[in-house]
Amino acid sequence: QVQLVESGGGLVQAGGSLRLSCEASGIFFSSYNMGWYRQAPGKQRELVATVTSDSSTNYRDSVKGRFTISRDNSKKRIDLQMDSLKPEDTAIYYCNAHLMGSARDFWGAGTQVTVSS
Question: pLDDT band for position 112 (50/70/90)?
Answer without folding.
Answer: very high
